[in-house]
């Protein structure tokens, strides 16, 4: 009778142990899924922010190109009437030439800012905001071998339900490590965005430089 009771307790605790480990494995997979969704949200945010700059630069390019064409038309067909004083012709050509150069610079800076924004987006998505793919070592930490039940100790193997407290001693839960990694990834994203050489600051600078001539 004692042997049968001990065998029943051993089997009961073993089933509980395997059930808990199965639940932990599901938690690990759920945390990995959450991390992947969070990384996708970050990638979408990067694309939206960079896309806004690209659309703005495209608008500046179109407007500046139209105004540049108007300047060319004034150079060719917008001549002043005969008998215009020379000083007025000089001022007219000076202002027209300045307008032509400013609009040309506006088109150039808008194209440059669009290229810099695209390069910054590629660098952010390929170097800083990658999907969290688990490594083989991480998958091994998530895995539970049935023989690991032998390491919980005889007291936990023969624990009497509702009478004996405590729980089996297991390895550190890697899901907690994953949860603590989430803010670290966010900090890395912020540091990476500020560390890019032709990054958002360059895009903003090119944007401001292109917006002044277009105004």
Q: Can you count the helices? A: 6
Q: Termini, distance in Å? A: 95 Å
Report the C-alpha radius of gyration, rounded.
34 Å
Give the helix/strand class.
Answer: mainly alpha
**Biggest sheet character:** none
H/E series, N to C?
HHHHHH
Beta-strand level of the residues, as a percent range? under 5%
Shape, per Cα inertia axes: rod-shaped
Residues in helices, as a percent range: over 70%
List the helices and strands and how they pair.
Elements: H1 2-77, H2 86-128, H3 136-142, H4 154-157, H5 174-195, H6 200-214
Helix pairs in contact: 1-2, 1-5, 1-6, 2-6
Summarize the structure.
This protein is mostly helical and 215 residues long. The protein has helices spanning 2-77, 86-128, 136-142, 154-157, 174-195, 200-214.
Can you characterise this structure?
The protein is 78% helix and 0% strand. It is mainly alpha-helical and 215 residues long. The N and C termini lie far apart (95 Å).
Core attributes:
mainly alpha, 6 helices, 78% helix, 0% strand, disordered C terminus
